[in-house]
Task: inverse folding
């Protein structure tokens, strides 16, 4: 289940680690009493409605000449929260998934840029990469990018294969993103898929 989202074209890809110009609040679903099981299957997300689809050429912000259409790289996503965690669900279409146990920054990944702060004031910004694992061989990873580095403490990611790519589900403790937990009304987000077939193409939304 997908619903089409409006790609955000205000932010140049060279400024991908900054969302200072964001003016659209992220759609952050309230988990409330819903059961979410971190299994990489996304069945529990059906009660929230369709995932937001990002699958058009206008959403490719970098490496556009290397993008060959939605079967090459596209994704759909949803974000949810509870008192302790940020939850992420992603369905990826990718005809060639580039991944390894090293989880290199140049490999395929879902990239979240999250920020919050007062209007006109200083933003607290985090960039987080969700690296898929390969079932039966190695686990995925949730790692900081940009000003921070290393694994995100307490975060988990699980994936499952599909015929056209993979499903990915992640859970990130708010405690690992200080300054964002109580900022649901001002939280901004950018979600991107980095496709590294050749020259990396990056498909974005907000």
Result:
């Amino acid at each position: 289940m997908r619903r089409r989202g409006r790609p955000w074209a205000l932010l140049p890809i060279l400024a991908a680690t900054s969302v200072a110009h964001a003016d659209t609040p992220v759609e952050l679903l309230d988990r409330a009493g819903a059961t979410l099981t971190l299994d990489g299957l996304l069945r529990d997300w059906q009660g929230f409605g369709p995932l937001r689809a990002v699958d058009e050429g206008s959403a490719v912000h970098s490496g556009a000449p290397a993008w060959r259409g939605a079967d090459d790289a596209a994704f759909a996503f949803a974000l949810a929260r509870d008192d302790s965690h940020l939850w992420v669900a992603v369905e990826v279409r990718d005809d060639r998934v580039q991944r390894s146990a090293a989880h290199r920054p140049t490999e395929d990944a879902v990239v979240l840029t999250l920020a919050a702060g007062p209007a006109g004031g200083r933003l607290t910004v985090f960039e987080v990469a969700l690296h898929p694992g390969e079932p039966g061989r190695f686990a995925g990873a949730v790692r900081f990018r940009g000003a921070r580095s290393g694994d995100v403490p307490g975060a988990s990611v699980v994936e499952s294969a599909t015929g056209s790519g993979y499903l990915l589900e992640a859970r990130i403790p708010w405690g690992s993103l200080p300054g964002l937990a109580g900022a649901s009304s001002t939280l901004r987000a950018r979600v991107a898929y980095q496709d590294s077939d050749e020259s990396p193409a990056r498909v974005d939304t907000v």
Observations:
- The chain has no helices and 13 strands.
